[in-house]
Amino acid sequence: MAELLVVRNLVRRFGDRTVLDRLSFELDAGEVCAVVGPNGAGKTTLLRCVVGADRADGGSIRLAGRQLVETDPWVRASVASVLDDVDFFPDLSVREHLDLLAFGHGTPDAAGTVERIVAELGLDEAQDQLPATLSSGQRRRAALASCFVRPRRLLVLDEPEQRLDVAGRAWLTRTLLAERDAGTAVLLASHDPELIEAVADYHLEFGDTEPGDADPEEAG
Amino acid sequence: MTLAGAVPRTARLRAELRAARRRHREGRAGDLYLALMFVVVYGGLSYRAVAGLGRLLGHAEPVRWWLAGAVALALAGLGYRGARVFGPLVAGPAEQTWALSTPVDRGRWLLGPLLVRVVAGALGGAVLGIGFAALAGAHPFAWVAATGAGLGAALVALAGLLQTRHLRRIHPLEWVPAGAGFAGATAVLVVHARDVALPVPAAMPVPVAIAALVLAAALTVAAARGLGRVDRAALASGAQIADATATATIFLDPTLLFGVLEARRWRALGRVRRRPFWSGWSRLPGRRWWLLLAAETRRLARRPGALAVWAALLVVPYSVAVLAPVFGMPARLVAAYFATGRLARGLRLVHASPALRRAIGGDDRYLHAVHLVVPALGLALWWLASAGSVPAQPPQALLVYPLAILFAVYRGATGPPRSYDGGAVDTPFGLIPAALLAQLFRGVDVLAVVVLVSLFVR
Prior knowledge:
heterodimer, A: alpha/beta, Rossmann fold, 5-stranded parallel β-sheet, 9 strands, globular, B: mainly alpha
């Protein structure tokens, strides 16, 4: 299969601390890569650089042969992500958030797609609720739903299993496998060995770090 | 893999977002009315106060013109620095996730916010120009205000332009406006102290105002052209600070903002050079006391900005002594309070953290005393250096006033944790918990008393 994501010699420093040190890897379409490692190893920083939420100090990231630049509309249409910085408009319901995103991406049959994802994620009852009334698990489901109501070639997820119950984790596993089968490349950081075992084609191991070397972007 | 359909126009997506948000909002007109009232009432009062002060000070002397101009430039430079810290364009996490992640035209999405910020910069600059005209008698009034508006807009547009070029680090040259303002004020004060006559300034030439406005327009156009290059990383960097500022404003607690700024500063620093504390301390009597003091001074050395502000505040009493001599001593007291406060970070930290106090050991009074040494020494130096700003020193200025300021700083740094419950009082800014008011004015209350005393006991 063709290489979809190619990361070469990626470097990210905070002050004089180097969190990502000339990291290189490739990810093909229809392949799932799990980024694993201890807290503070740089997993979240890597994902943030890949989606353009942070800028690397060196190296290159290419998507389908093109330089990955977040300001490129094609890149935004291609990369769907849920990192740790997802938030909601306080005055929009869950359904309105998803409708807005599907509309903004020009998703074919936006209403039908949103309807289906809401049902799959068990958000039917909560779809008209405002974010302040949602539980942390429901917020997580709504955030994950944002990836599936829009087009995507690359899915980037930071610990997607967090706050999901057993049914939610089962849905996540099924969905990631379906995405893989549909040809979407998936890059995820996770601490859940069962999820990784079930979906990942290969691992990107991040080494041990000293406590003082913690990844400043990483909460968990 | 899902394929994309037709991406909507930016205006259409924005309209959808606004329409959806409006459905759940009530009293929007009331909010706008309140904001307008706030601007009209407080703007009018501020203008009357500044104009009244100008009349009170009488005929403008050249030194006042130059000094007020330098101070206005310094304030504009600090405003520019603030705009760069914020972005000036920011997008909160919600906007990033649900709107900016779509492939709609980024440049068009950000054009409105850029223009709003440029207009805000123009308003801020006009306010500075009006203050300058009222205090220094600069004229013609309208052209001075227009020059201020043009320069204010130009600085914000420049900040926007640099954001489009992905220059997230502040270049040393960007300190030039603020630095020139402070240096200019210092130079004017030195020249004035030596009784050197300054040239009488001419009326503000109309071409200067027009040039400022043209510069603002050119920079705005340049910034607008590059908006499509502003990426998520650039928009996110100021969002945390904007969020903290909003929270700090709502809760009237500036420490919420300072905490975020401090965390960013330490994160940018990343790592520091490890140095053992001098082993000679261990041979001195009361060795723990000396070690804590050494740690405190080492922390201070890692915050050179605090020392710079401490020193820069010396300009305040000397400037006020020239601009409004009647307020010389009160200005000196207020500036001394803020300058000393910059050195009291260790005291605040130790007091606010029971865990830190437990880890260090010793009783609270002992720890407070150790961490009061640096502020006390800093205040003593600062007080001596500012002595020349008030020619006739009343006897209480020798010891009573500095001790009162030190007490005010100590009181402010050692307050109880913020509490937002309890009864509320009605203020011009809305209902505010009484306990919170008491906590906010802790330290400032002592300062207010000292300032009042200085006004009436000479």
